[in-house]
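Hi C.,

You asked whether I'd gotten around to modeling the 695-residue construct. I have! Everything is below, sequence then structure, no commentary in between.
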Amino acid sequence: MNAITAPRTARSVCPHDCPSTCALDVELIDSNTIGRVRGAKDDPYTAGVICEKVARYAERIHHPNRLLHPLRRTGKKGAGEWRQITWDDAFEEIVARWLEIEATDGPEAIWPYFYAGTMGHVHRDGIERLRHARSYSLQYDTICTGTAWPGYIAGTGLLTGPNPETMAESDCVVIWGTNAVATQVNVMTHAIRARKERGAKIVAIDIYRNGTMEQADMALVVRPGTDGALAVAVMHILLRDDLADRAYMARYTDFSPEFEAHLKSRTPEWAAAITGLTVEEIEAFARLVGTTPKTYFRLGYGFTRQRNGSTAMHAALSIPAMTGAWQHRGGGAFHSNSGAWKLDKSIILGADLGPGGRELDMSEIGKVLTGDSKALKHGGPVKALFIQNTNPMNVSPEQGLTRAGFEREDLFTVVHEQFMTDTAKMADIVLPATMFLEHNDYYRRGGHTRVLYGPKLVDAPGECRSNFEVVNELLRRLGTEHPSLQMTDREMVAETFRRSSFGELDEIEKTGFVESNMPDEEARFGNGFAWPDRRYRFAPDWDAVARLKGYTWVCDPSEMPRFADHWDVTERIDAETPFRLATSPSRSFLNSSFAETPGSQKRQPEPTVFVHPADAAALGIANGDPITLGNRRGEVALKAIFFAGMQRNVLIAEGIHPNSAHRNGQGINTLIGSDPVRPFGGAAFHDTSVWLRRG
């Protein structure tokens, strides 16, 4: 091992589940040690700015509690009793148990389970080869994008939009349903640049007055689950006041007399009663976007994590289609570029190995593991889990069911992780994993336009092995033959780039990226939208969305609203559960990641919930009191923090703390339902009814 003689800086990419996917400059102290992490100044989107969590990444990669060796459980599940074993012993036991389960229960009894703890495709998606090689159960990915993406595609036909860097050229930026200051700091970089250079107005729409709203010129605090009502009321005003671009709609949309008649009753007074906004606020927002052609709508995930999330996304997206904002550079709407990449990931996924087994919904893991016949697709039980890149014991909905499932003695669980997470604590075997600076991968920017290469920069500590290495070794020992098993992770990146016609990795590495930006006019659908008739759909064809993306219906299609609308299907508040809870992102954590780092723990040392002072007074709760939230799914203990920046009967719990951080050991997602969100599944993390009491 050669030490680096003097600190130097090397280029990398943030790997975490965030739309920004920032380009990084990493200070290298020696071949094992990093120093400061900064945003790359020469990257046009990152523009030298990264979130404070990643800036402190040395805290995470060099944390004393990192997993360093394979471990075998010796006591009761969750008791924390372990014995160090060798990698060879671990592989032998895993393969032996899997082969036994295949023989007795069938291959579908084994479920590889993962998500986006790393956004690098080689080390995130390579787990799919296990399913295809062995016919293990497939995974229906719903937990993050299941409601947002269909709603956007329902309008445009393609999940893309104008380059987010063009926000800086806007005259109005609408940041809707995302606390960009906490979760997408680069959005604020370009929005504030537009304000400084062009006098642009920034509008923030959310369910509580967060850091993004504090920087906005207009801040609209709506009741959770009512964004669709605001959107259709805005369109009512645009038509009423002749602010709609009827010529644009006639050429590029399916606008019809029926839709106009539908909007007649969606008055600002009607929307005010639903959203909690004043009529004046709704009118002012409509006038602003109706008289500012170059308005850029940055639509986030937050307002789609409701049971009406898909229709809310579609309704908000419909506003720029009515104003014609798409015509102008610096205008239009954006959620994700994830539909625009032309990546050939076939060798990573290994689909040529076989079709895989039944498809199980990842958001229903609790139901799956506790034997719900519908969740199991009326098949046999899951007898083995292999988990990478996610922490379902902490982040999945309906934690009571998830916990009960993981506690099953007949469930053989292997977790490949960086820390002893709540999920790792429930495993039979825990394997130590590398972090992003310790392996090679590439990263696609859902939030903007480049595919970036992230090289290995330092050696991994202890016996840590990468996701790619572990999956390959398991496949070899299971008797699989495939070209991917003869490759290194760098060679997998290179081969994927070749198949995608990106060029050779040796050349790409010189700049560190492949630019995949669409021409601006194409990104703004300047020649028509992506549906066969080239028209934006105010009247969405949800079945066409399902066919286009391979989505699975979870409701009768006839239940869906015909036009862009507010759909009143959120979880009801009533006398028993009179509060609506949203589990919003924290500035300190990224889902459950970073909960272990000192900087994050200092900023947010314990689980809290924002309570409106008037609601607290009615219940005799003082600021800082211990409180309990509950519903039919369970109870969660937190500390009350008074906060008047939201509407009455709304509660906000920021961040996902480890379950053990709560006084009763139950994490916040205990309260969240796992019922599949219409039309195609998903988790309604911001749509939960609860009671609140002191103590």
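If it helps when you're writing up: Residues 87-105 form the longest helix (19 residues).

Thanks,
B.
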